[in-house]
Amino acid sequence: MSRAYRISVSESLNRIVHADDGVCSKLELLPLLSREETAGLLAADLAARGFVQEGDVAVRTEADGVRVAVDVTTGEVSVTLAAQQEVELTAVGEVRTNAPAPTEATQKLAREKARAKLEDRAQDATEALREEVTRKLEGRLRDLKAELDAISNKVTAEALKVRASQLGTVEEIHEDAATGSLTIKVRV
Questions:
Q1: What is the pLDDT of residues 64-104, one digit of tens each?
Q2: Which of 37, 65, 74, 91 makes an SS bond possible with 33, Cβ 3.0 to 4.6 Å?
Q3: FtsH ternary system domain spans which residues (predicted)?
């Protein structure tokens, strides 16, 4: 009767895992003015809120890493968050054999098992980081939605004022910040 021997091989893995998530939307801007005029109003409002113009896109990166980009010509908005994390993992691969001394084949098999475990754990770490990024992004989206709605409302109000002045002489403007209503009296 032969004895069963266990061959164990330990492997380690150091890796930087990356995860990112994002969402795209579009500002609802009424077509009251030409695209260029609306883009100018939108760019001005975004600049006042800390956005930096990079071509047709206004970009702001928050302290928590959330990147908000608004294409001023189309109103397309993208909100993204990326993160990376260094992981240090170790795993042991085991093989049972009848030979008292480990052979190259049994060591190779044990090493492959250990590496497979490491890859699974690295994948789990990546997925955990992605879930964390998604949670953070979802939390920030509520705040950003309110800000983006305010931007859309302000740009629309400014566009209405410009359009009213194009139609005739503006005699009176009433804005109610509480309700968001805007009344413009124009003499044509």
A1: 889 999 999 999 999 999 999 999 999 988 888 877 777 88
A2: 37
A3: 1-188
**CB pairs under 8 A, 24+ apart, for 176-180?**
180/153
pLDDT at 10 over 80: yes
At 5 the pLDDT is 81
Closest by alpha carbon to 11, among 118, 155, 167, 166? 118
Which are the contacts of 140, defined by CB distance < 8 A and separation ≥ 6? Answer: 62, 64, 66, 79, 81
Burial grade of 144 (CB within 10 A; 0-12, 13-18, 19 or more):
middle
- As a whole number of angstroms, the distance between CA 42 and CA 77 comes to 12
What are the beta bridge partners of residue 9? 93
- Is the C-alpha dihedral spanning 99, 103, 106, 111 positive or negative? positive
Give 75's Cβ-side CA count (13 Å radius).
18
Give the per-residue pLDDT at 40.
Answer: 93
Residues whose CB falls within 8 Å of the CB of residue 3, separated by 6 or more in sequence, listed in order: 98, 100
Phi, psi for residue 74 in degrees, rounded to 5: -110, -20
